[in-house]
Design goal:
The complex is a heterodimer of chains A (484) and B (461).
Chain A: H1 2-14, E1 19-36, E2 39-57, E3 60-66, H2 72-86, E4 103-107, H3 119-133, E5 140-156, E6 161-178, E7 184-189, H4 205-223, E8 226-227, E9 231-237, H5 239-251, H6 256-259, E10 289-292, E11 313-318, E12 321-322, H7 329-339, E13 351-352, E14 361-362, E15 367-369, H8 377-382, E16 386-398, E17 404-416, E18 419-425, E19 428-432, H9 433-438, E20 440-443, E21 450-459, E22 464-472, E23 475-482
Parallel strand pairs in A: 4-6, 8-18, 9-16
Antiparallel strand pairs in A: 1-2, 1-5, 2-3, 5-6, 6-7, 9-23, 10-11, 10-15, 11-12, 13-14, 16-17, 17-18, 17-19, 19-23, 20-23, 21-22
Chain B: H1 2-18, E1 22-38, E2 41-59, E3 62-70, H2 75-91, E4 108-113, H3 116-119, H4 123-133, E5 142-159, E6 162-181, E7 187-194, H5 202-218, E8 221-222, E9 227-234, H6 235-243, H7 245-248, H8 252-256, E10 278-280, E11 302-306, E12 309-310, H9 317-323, E13 337-339, H10 349-353, E14 361-364, E15 366-374, E16 379-385, E17 389-391, E18 397-400, E19 403-408, H11 409-413, E20 417-420, E21 424-428, E22 440-444, E23 446-454, E24 456-457
Parallel strand pairs in B: 4-6, 8-18, 9-14
Antiparallel strand pairs in B: 1-2, 1-5, 2-3, 5-6, 6-7, 9-23, 10-11, 10-13, 11-12, 14-17, 15-16, 16-19, 17-18, 19-24, 20-23, 21-22
Pfam families (chain B): PmbA_TldD_3rd
Domain Metalloprotease TldD/E C-terminal (chain B): 227-447
InterPro entries (chain B): Metalloprtase-TldD/E_C, TldD/PmbA_N, TldD/PmbA_sf
Chain lengths: 484, 461
Amino acid sequence: MRNKFQEQIQRLKAAGATYVDARWYPVEETNQLMMWNGNLKTVSSSRESGVGIRVLYKGAWGFSASSDVGNLTSLFDKALDNARVAAERVTFPVRLAEKESIQASFKSPNRIDPFSVPLGEKVEFLKKLDEQLNQPGVAQRVCELIFMRKQIVYFDSEGSEIEKNIIEVFPSIQVMGVDAQGESHSRKFSPSLSGATRGWETLDPHLFSENAERIVREMNEVLVAETCPTDQRSVILLPGIMYLQTHETIGHALELDRILGYELAYAGGSFVKLGDFGELRYGSPKLTARANATLPNSPGSFGYDDDGVAAQDNLLIDKGLLVGAITGRQMVEEANVRAGKAIFNGSSGANRATAFYRVPIERMTNINIDPGSDGSLDDIVKNTEKGIILDGDKSWSIGSNREQFHFATDIGWLVEDGKVTRVVKNPTYKGETVPFYNSLSAVGDESTWEVRSVDNCGKGQPNQVMQLGHGIPVCRFDNVTIGE
Amino acid sequence: MKELILQTLCDLRAYALSKNVDATFFYHEEESYLMRFANSAISLNTNEHLIRLEITAYEDRKRASYEMITDLSKLDEMKQGVDIAAEMVKHAQALNYQPTVPAYGETHIDETSYDAALAGIGNEERLGYFNQAVAGLETDEIRLSGIFSCGVNTIAQITTRSEHLQYFKSTDAQISVVLSHSTLKWEVIAEQSAQKKTELNPALLRRDLAFLLERYLHDTPQQLPVGSYDIVFGSAAIAELISIMNYIGFDGGSMKRGFSFIAEDQVGQQVFSDKFNLTDDPTRLETFPFRRDMTGMSREPFPIFEQGIFNSFTWSQDDADEFGATPTGHTVMHNSLVLEGGGREVGTLEELVNLPRENDLLYIPFLHYMNIVNPSKGLITASSRFGALLLKKDGSVAVPYNVRITQSLSDIFGDRLAWLSRTQTVYNTSMSYGARNPTSIVVPAFLQVNALEISHSNSSY
């Protein structure tokens, strides 16, 4: 089979293609179980296989995909034909940054393959969680397990051949209750990625048990809480919301295809301009952010991207200064030419596709914020005069250039004179991205740092859902509007 | 091809019966094409041909599903899927209600939403459409983005409970054309939805783009003070606001689970303005409708709001089974929502701009990244995007930087609803997550809501 791909790639090169790659998925499987109020509403599995072909011809891309690998010649020809048509409208001929030819493989670290675990065992795991959540005040309880497994074999016309075998596990629990005014409130928990592996062994019953008790208790506190005040104060974002703040206003804002206008028809652009790299004070000196695809156990770590570039750890924001972007091979070349100088040295290895039938685009890896030197959460609270601690991603809405945002969280704890005073319900906060990050006044230490996974990041047309991660400490921002 | 699909489903049914497996089969086939533009070039030209088969096995109160991407030559592989689903259901847990396994009373073949001409449209025609839509409008500074997405969608179903089948075949096209300024970071948009090739009309898009471009190139941009405005929403914004009610409004299951701003006892009560009439109308072909739902129930026009009075929740079969309600024919991949037009004769943007007005009007054509802040209150938040205008009472026009609104649906469609256009527009709300599912909503071209707050206003594009 591998020889057939190589033969087709060489055939298209001979026909005038300047670059060809193929991503063959011999197998991709998902397994999802969802228990709602004790009802096993979803028990589903899926399996797919196929191949996606990407062809560069006279500076334009063509792509074609099929689940039928029996007629590769037709499929490769279709991709070339699509590129030929695209070549009729080229304004900036696509060029790809240099890379090495790689023969390698990557296997995500797992001790127990979740697909080897009997379904009955998975159901029992959910039943126990459901029983723990079935407490007074809880009107709705949801327990979910999602498992993914994919094998990807990548070939390109530059001599690379890379095989990846990746397994992901996404567990979560959630409770909802109704307050005296008839409003619904929820709390949820999904574990941070604390170990060195990401298989079935990461589903620690004790951890879930502790957190089941915690989220029920906190939700019941919200049900009898006063509404969040509307004012300006410091917001202390726990990793359960700071990961999303980072995702939306650092991660997406620094995708180079967005910056260059390739998402303007749909997801939007970015307030960041090419001239901002090395110049823009994105945040206070306490802010250091990086795209680190080398974390040992995150879905944002994948060995090699779908350009065949090795995973990297790159600075995005260095002590507040914007220095890097999330890139693939194509965009860095265009950005450097448009900027008239070499802003980027090469691809940052972040071009990924969600499936064989989608084309790779710039995607986040693990977009992390480095731990700071402001101590534990308690230390930060002690040093806060008037603030609110926020946690839980209830709602998020971001301006089309990622320039402003509005978030709602599941719970808030007011802080007065260095002490937590009371819980409030329906907390929200809003801001403008650059002023917000420049108001970053405290960053928690390693004790506050957690790696959160994201299993549903959407981008692109046709839309692609991607899995990734965020390593995040507790962060405090000053003079933020809350409660609107 | 239709015969092969139907025969394959019959073969799978026979196989399941031979194994004593109670099952439903859901076949989905898409032939999708997407030409995407960015920076005035074709940034992606792609096509996918995918066949998905979902097999759900039932064992009394237990059920389990197995989905595969396959092709029609792989009958043995599909039969293995039946075996896998049957094995899975043994290990599933019983629901606390009895799930209904559909039994189709008759075979239903619906190809009324299929247009051979649209199915046959090619690369050159897609490119030609875009070239016409932006003819003479692009410059070094003004760049083209957008998509031309089209395809053929086929759905077929059978269950072990009867020998009858359901078959739906449709064609659709969704076009977005965006012109953006290369350095100022503003964008204007024009969009079109088509079910037939004859509905494609790039000249209409060019007219709207040229009009907006003129405004954005020459009128004074400004930051609006936050506060109260009379706001006219365009069809895209209206469709987004209506669409979100699928999730937090009239869906019975969502209501029972605490995700609705409409309470169970509000049936028959005034919820919105008496100008508000919303129907799920599967007779409107523009909505890529299902005349039968996935359980075989016949679907007829279903009034949801009549003169602002909430008429009924919609119930899918599974939610009805779980909560003891009567299904309403809403086990569908999408509804066919139609918001009735009103009395105002305003059908085009030019007519809106020329409308005599006593107050400044803020025109918001598009709501970006809408999310639900509080489902119990119907509170949503979103930003303006793509060609907002401030229509001043003196007749002049200014270009506002983007603003954010955080408002409840009751405030938007309640007493402050001033008027709706008589002219209706088809707005394509298809998402491309997962399988192709062409969806559109019929809405008035414009509607005006008075005294709505904007809570944030950008200081630049």
